[in-house]
């Protein structure tokens, strides 16, 4: 099928079946345009929970669809492919969490939403990059075991010196790959550009930033800024919304590899097939779902 025909069929199927389509800023622009809502991880998880539609097509990596299912177990949550998985979500395990739990009193296990449903079940509260600071700041526990993302954990620790952070070794390969020297080389060419950084980047990169925030935070900042040139230190799917909102501003990448291969597995063909067959569906074991829901609900309660 040609691209135009696929798009028309997707629109028809979506309307006929009353399906809510959600998309993360890292999926291809063409998919973002077909979605009812596009956003960062927190916003999408809130929309998935609050909207009345009973079938959701989640265009993002698997933990996103899983979180929607966990928060609304009565809804049918489908994804374009079960193959799109965030590698960081698997970078911690139950054994490690239990070991830290036995070594520390007065401990909260804080889990970045980029994690498996199992890991969420061993955690006290979930966070995303847009609400992590406020949630962790207000926790009564002194010791914070932050999983799985080492970089976001270290960033929070710089902002919350009264907490004692224990870090995990996990990272996002795409953000980890962004290096201070490469950014400085781009800055050398575009001297007036502001540097906008996602907190999944390393501290050496965060230190260069004019602004640090989630994907939607970066878009808001660039849109409101009086500056007209920016160096983007995150996944480049974000460019679609940045350009749509700011057609006369300039956005520079740092390296060509600022692409999340898993997010790019969400293709038009996969979206069409999912809408047509209502598969693959996110199905979790009930005991995992019931354990994981507590940390996600706590995030929505504290993040309000
Ligand atoms: P946010 O959209 O919440 O900033 O998350 C980035 C991300 O890596 C999602 O996979
Ligand atoms: Fe995971 Fe990084 Fe891809 Fe986000 S960009 S889904 S954190 S691998």
From TrEMBL:
Keyword Transferase assigned? yes
Query: Which GO BP annotation is one of this protein's?
Result: 'de novo' NAD+ biosynthetic process from L-aspartate
> What cofactor does this one take?
[4Fe-4S] cluster
| Assigned keywords, A-Z | 4Fe-4S, Iron, Iron-sulfur, Metal-binding, Pyridine nucleotide biosynthesis, Transferase
* Enzyme nomenclature, EC number: 2.5.1.72
Pathway in which the depicted protein is active: Cofactor biosynthesis; NAD(+) biosynthesis; quinolinate from iminoaspartate: step 1/1
Q: Which domain of life is it from?
A: Bacteria
Q: Which Pfam families match?
A: NadA
Q: Name one GO cellular component term.
A: cytosol
For this UniProt entry, the molecular function terms from Gene Ontology, in alphabetical order, are: 4 iron, 4 sulfur cluster binding; metal ion binding; quinolinate synthetase A activity
SUPFAM superfamilies in the record: NadA-like (SSF142754)
Q: Which InterPro entries match?
A: NadA (IPR003473), NadA_sf (IPR036094)
| NCBIfam families, per database record | nadA (TIGR00550), PRK09375.1-2 (NF006878)
This protein's name: Quinolinate synthase
Lineage of this protein's species? Bacteria, Bacillati, Bacillota, Clostridia, Eubacteriales
């Amino acid at each position: 099928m040609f691209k135009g025909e696929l798009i028309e069929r997707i629109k028809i199927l979506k309307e006929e079946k009353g399906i809510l389509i959600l998309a993360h800023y890292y999926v291809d622009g063409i998919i973002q345009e077909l979605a009812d809502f596009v956003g960062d991880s927190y916003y999408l998880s809130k929309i998935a929970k609050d909207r009345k539609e009973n079938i959701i097509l989640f265009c993002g990596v698997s933990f996103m669809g899983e979180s929607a299912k966990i928060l609304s177990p009565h809804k049918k949550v489908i994804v374009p492919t079960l193959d799109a998985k965030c590698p960081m979500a698997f970078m911690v395990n139950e054994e490690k969490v239990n070991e830290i739990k036995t070594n520390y009193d007065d401990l909260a296990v804080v889990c970045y939403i980029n994690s498996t449903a199992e890991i969420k079940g061993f955690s006290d509260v979930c966070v995303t990059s847009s609400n992590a600071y406020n949630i962790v700041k207000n926790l009564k526990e002194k010791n914070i075991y932050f999983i799985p993302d080492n970089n976001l954990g270290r960033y929070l620790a710089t902002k919350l010196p009264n907490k004692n952070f224990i870090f995990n070794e996990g990272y996002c390969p795409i953000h980890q790959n962004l290096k201070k020297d490469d950014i400085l080389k781009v800055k050398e060419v575009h001297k007036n550009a502001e540097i906008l950084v996602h907190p999944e980047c390393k501290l050496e990169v965060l230190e260069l930033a004019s602004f640090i925030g989630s994907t939607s935070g970066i878009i808001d900042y660039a849109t409101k800024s009086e500056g007209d040139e920016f160096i983007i230190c995150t996944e480049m799917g974000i460019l679609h919304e940045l350009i749509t909102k700011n057609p006369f501003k300039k956005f520079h990448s740092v390296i060509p590899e600022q692409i999340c291969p898993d997010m790019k597995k969400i293709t038009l063909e996969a979206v069409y097939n999912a809408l047509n067959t209502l598969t693959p569906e996110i199905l979790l074991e009930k005991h995992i779902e019931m354990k994981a829901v507590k940390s996600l609900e706590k995030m929505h309660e504290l993040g309000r």
